[in-house]
Structure formats: C-alpha cells, structure tokens
VOC domain-containing protein (Cylindrodendrum hubeiense), 300 residues
Amino acid sequence: MSTTSKTSILRVAHVYYKHKNVAKQQQFLADFGFIETERHGSKIYYRGYGSEPFLYCLEPGIEDEFGGAGLVVESLEDLEKARAIFPTASEVYDLVNVPGGGKCVTPQQKNRPVNSFQRFQKGPATVHKMGHFGMCVTDFQKAYDFYTKHFNFVASDVQYDEAGTDISAFMHIDLGEEFTDHHTFFIFQGPKSHVHHSSFEVHDFDTEVIGHDWLRAKGYRNCWGVGRHIMGSQIFDYWFIVEHYVDGDQVNCHTKTNRSAASPDGLHVWEMLNSLSGFVEYTKYNDNAFDTGLKSFMIY
Ligand SMILES: [Fe+2]
C-alpha cells in the first residue's frame, strides 16, 4: 500500500501500435518472437511466454504510429491517483475484450478518430470556470501573513528580490490530498493596492486561440500572450483585466513551496510578441491601505 501522493507503478505491461501494413507487421512480430493470443475487432493481441496477458497490441492505422504504453499500478487507489494527474483522464473502467481484463484509466482522450474531419467553429472561448485572481499589495509580508494565517491558502511558488526579500506569492487552496490549481490567488509587492487580473479557464489550447482570434477580429487587442507561464504553467492570454488560460499545474498537500528569484524572464517561457503591453490598474483603495480584495464567502 503506497503512502505517498505518487501513483505507485509496479511494471510496464504492454504497448499499442498502429500499422499501415498489418499483414507485414504480423509476420514481423511472429519473427520477432511474439505469440498471437487474442483478436477483438481490428485489434490483434500478442503475448510472450511470461505471465503478462499481452505485450503488444497491433491495430490497423493510416500511419505507422505509437499508441502508448500500459502501466500496471499497485491498487485501485493508485488508479485514482493516476487519474487525478491528467485533466482529461477517463473514469476508472473495466477492460472488456482485452486479454487479462482488469480496471483501467486512460489519461488522454485525444485520439483522433480516423476517416473524419476536425472542423472547429469560430467564436468566443467558452469559459469553464474561474481559476484565480491576484492583487498588488503595498506590504507583501503583512498581506502574506494575513492570507496564510486566516485561510487555507498555501504558497505553491514564492519569489524574492535581489535582497532576498519575498515579493510575490502564488497560492493554492489547501484541500489535502485532493489536487487543486497551482494558484487560486496571488499577491505581489507594488506601489499601489489594486487588483491585477482575474482569470478564467477554457477547455483546451484550440479553444483559447480560437477565442483569441475571435476577440482580435472584433477589434480588441490583448495586452499579453498568448504565452506559457512558468509558475503554474498555464497557457495564458490576457485581455487587460481578465485572462483566458488552459493547462495549468495541479498541486496538493504534498507539493512543496517552490522559492525562486524574481526576474524579468520569470513570468513566461514563451510568448507571441504581438500584444499591447500593460494591464489596467483598478486602484480602488488608498495607496497605503491594506485591502484584502475579498468580497464574499459562500456556501452552496
Ligand atoms: Fe493569471
């Protein structure tokens, strides 16, 4: 029984491949030393002489293509852990018509069906959920102490200046073992107390960029992005006060706070250099007042 947050893998079990010339590959696999064990639909399963139900699954394809590897994990709990790693993971399901049976999680549901077309529609990037918001604060340490003392905010990333003084924190909501976004709230030291931006998650990269094109076609200009953050790893697209993002990191109670030096290069690893520069600063409060930026607490 594993006691860490890591998914406990016992062994690698099998691989999936697609081949254009199935007959030729069948011959090769036999010559290579595999033994055909079962056929289901268009899939041909091969075993070795060990106890693993199959080692190689051959499928016809329009290209020769690797379809991924199957890994055996220790327990049902590990399947759930594996599932939590991938935003697009399937539910746990029973393997039917597969040698050996068992239960399975598929991390990606991205396999494109062959003989069909992807036809994306132009339009706004439909928003999935609110992800985070952030405040510029005039007394970073006071603000940091406030949020972490009174709430289950825990820093995922903290950055410090040349003098070693902490100046920004990206905080997640501590939900214990449950995975949650790398940051739900962030604060950084600055001359005026104001909200920086609020951010909304979209479904995938296509959705985000289609939404970006849509806004541009409507005459809007963004202020930063599209790009890839470092802290939190999101693919971002900022429209001054609001942000579209996708593909952010997930953390839980086993994630250690990462500390690093702040630098101009520290905010993105790549960015499309066609945006306007600058955020709208909504300075609602007195310069030296500490305002939490919090409006309400709810229970649904
Ligand atoms: Fe953001």
The first helix runs from residue 22 to 32. The pocket of fe (ii) ion is lined by residues 132, 197, 199, 236, 243 (CB under 6 Å). DSSP finds four helices and 19 strands in the chain. The radius of gyration is 24 Å.
